[in-house]
């Protein structure tokens, strides 16, 4: 029994079968990559997992509880955090404030009025946030506007913000898309470090095979809305079906 | 039955005005992605085009041969001015031209309003495409204040009566025409003219968008601004022209509305708020939605003004449009005919 | 001090000092001099400074922090005013219950409006609030005439019940008071040719302003305030950080509605009357304007913005043709006439034209308002280290040791 169990999930958009009978199990404390050519349904699947889309049929269970019909913030509070393709951070806030918000969310839940005490006197929250920033090598920038950071640092901050919530499942949507090689390698190193240091399950959607094979312990190949193969990276590498899906009929 | 028809007819003129303003708002929002709070001011400027032309045409001079009317040293008629147009074209033609000043203003208003629209877009709106919607709302709100204050300075605060041509003043028995009892449905001529005019303009705009290449590009732009932006070709200029057209549509709506309601400087603001509600009810970004909602809400308002309705729900005519808008936005946030994904969270 | 950082406390002190010494600061010119027309230290205007300051401070908590642009906040001010006048008619002339009720009623009303309007965002939200406000205006103007007095509005009358108050002696008028302190009571201080007026009503309003300002600092610096800024900055990240943005925005909406209600209650406390025009949407536009002009999202901005607009309104609308001629009389005749003709449309009744132009200029060139303008000028003077200054400011206000 995996921490995430997707069973018989179907989703249609008009005439297009975006997801067809998806069955997928993600085991706890593994790094599971979902790959596939464009239009294979990776993003649709991700949006189902975070509550942005509701599938037509099927079930999605996280740690024994259904996520279907729950709002994105509720699913997040269950322990699923999401990293976006383009980093989504609070650009108008300082780096430290960015890091404080998920810690507040973890401590106070989805809504709590704390309108009178000063944020600056929340020592515990600030300490936790600074600790996290140090581990990300972002401590020097903590009073900078986060919008002014480099793309690579924004990515680090976003991943850090997700980790600050201590999620059980971390979803990554093409975390290195549009990045320079150096930034990509930094991100891979960061994710490896996270994997080694924490009890955390990571599901990653990725185009870049270098990233996938550096990180993944299991890989599911999605094609035309359905899982084609699921196996270890070594087996996937030489799999004829995978080559066919990626290179087309001619292969 | 005849009472219902009467209310529908009564709702048509306001509905037409809502539909025309909402059409322009939607065109601008759909193509340029800009929320134009100054659109009501364009309607008002159109109305004042009619006022201006009327004044220009009525400009006169005291004839040289005024002595003909003077008796015993007192010149009774001396103060009477003769309009230049009567002098140039003869008395009867000249008088007819003045009498027809409102319809003639259409010819005057089209170039003026397109000009104002283009200047507005190039001079101001263009710089706000990439700014947040709040900034667009605020800057056009400021512009609306400026425009209406300029008009107030030159034309004063009081409404200026601008009559329809003699031939269209008064009312006729519409009921008798369509087979009801005589004298049950008396309808002013000009309102019918206004409705026909609005229908013509709306038809014209739709035909333009449907059957010309220009229109095709604009429609494609409304469907997916980013993709059309990628095509690149002259899209900026097309949008400028589109803004000019939207300004002209609002202006013409204003020109023809002057005989129904004497124009004043704040008429634009009054119509703007309701026109926004119309756009939202119709569905942000949907042209047919804007037209449909305009007429529906105009007619609804007219029904709510019936004596029988007001007896049970006093004052409902004042708020019915807002109520409907709130209910629609909550139950069907996309509006009547709005497409998915336009201005949604 | 008072739970504030040094910097914020200094800001509070500045506002407090400005409010307390306003009768001096605003009357710099001796009576009877040519410049006396630029004095603003008379009770009526000073009260409006304070009241609109409160209104704008509240609006800023919504718009400045969350970015939700409400075009209907005048409705809450109006509702507060109606609640206050009824309290003064039915219960007592004492303004305290009236102001309390106006805050409560405006809070409840904004809860309803906010609950519905916040289901949409962006333009839809602006239009929804606008529709609600216009509907309230229409209701107050017509349907609810028995409650609102329709077009003429409501005033205190001799035959109001006022069940807590003793009957009026013959010839006595009902006066708004705070435990017997008459709002219209003034003390005049003469200092040579200068005259300063200390008005009870103004000081009540000023006390409310200081309190309102203090509360807004606390809200700005609180975790709640941080959440509100997060909504404005990135709603998607907010949601995917497990936070439900809507109750946060609603709380901000209600708080700003209560501020508006307080302002409305104070208005009634000062002039004991109310009319529906107070709720018209141009009145909602005005508070947007004040906030933007001063600097949305800054603490001091709304206070500055409302002060500047109310001062300009008062002074500029007083200038007329003959005053202009007087000013430029030292010029050659032709030039004088030309200048007067040029300036005339912008003064007197043309005040709104000036207002509209100023507003456009601010939105176009200075979206951060006067505060940003001041910062830009400040930066010009101390170029070196300018970039790290902003970061240092934040570092200072964050420092919990203070």
From TrEMBL, chain A:
InterPro entries, per the entry: AAA+_ATPase (IPR003593), ABC_AA/LPS_Transport (IPR051120), ABC_transporter-like_ATP-bd (IPR003439), BCA_ABC_TP_C (IPR032823), P-loop_NTPase (IPR027417)
This protein's record includes keyword Metal-binding: no
Domain ABC transporter: 4-249
A cellular-component GO term for this protein: plasma membrane
A GO molecular-function annotation: ATP hydrolysis activity
CDD domains (alphabetical): ABC_Mj1267_LivG_branched (cd03219)
Keywords, in A-Z order: ATP-binding, Nucleotide-binding, Transport
Pfam families registered for this protein in UniProt: ABC_tran, BCA_ABC_TP_C
Full protein name: ABC transporter ATP-binding protein
Taxonomic path: Bacteria, Pseudomonadati, Pseudomonadota, Alphaproteobacteria, Rhodobacterales
UniProtKB/TrEMBL annotation, chain B:
Similarity section: Belongs to the binding-protein-dependent transport system permease family. LivHM subfamily.
One Pfam short name: BPD_transp_2
One function term, GO molecular function aspect: transmembrane transporter activity
InterPro entries: ABC_transp_permease, BCAA_transport_permease
Protein name, UniProt field: Branched-chain amino acid ABC transporter permease
Signal peptide, first to last residue: none
Keyword Hydrolase attributed: no
Keywords: Amino-acid transport, Cell membrane, Membrane, Transmembrane, Transmembrane helix, Transport
GO cellular component, one term: plasma membrane
Principal cellular location given in the protein's record: membrane
Bilayer topology term: Multi-pass membrane protein
Protein's GO biological process: amino acid transport
Source organism of the structure: Roseovarius spongiae
Transmembrane segments: 15-35, 42-62, 106-125, 192-218, 239-259, 265-283, 315-331
Compartment list: Cell membrane
Entry superkingdom: Bacteria
From TrEMBL, chain C:
GO CC terms, sorted: plasma membrane
UniProt-recorded name of the protein: Branched-chain amino acid ABC transporter permease
Membrane spanning stretches: 9-26, 46-63, 94-116, 123-144, 200-220, 247-267, 287-309, 353-373
Entries under PANTHER family matching the protein: ABC TRANSPORTER ATP-BINDING PROTEIN, HIGH-AFFINITY BRANCHED-CHAIN AMINO ACID TRANSPORT SYSTEM PERMEASE
A molecular function (GO) term: branched-chain amino acid transmembrane transporter activity
Primary location: membrane
Keywords assigned by UniProt, alphabetized: Cell membrane, Membrane, Transmembrane, Transmembrane helix
Compartments reported by the entry: Cell membrane
Domain of life from the UniProt record: Bacteria
Coiled-coil regions listed in the entry: none
Keyword Transmembrane helix among record annotations: yes
InterPro entries referenced in this protein's UniProt entry, alphabetically: ABC_transp_permease, LivM-like
Protein topology in the membrane: Multi-pass membrane protein
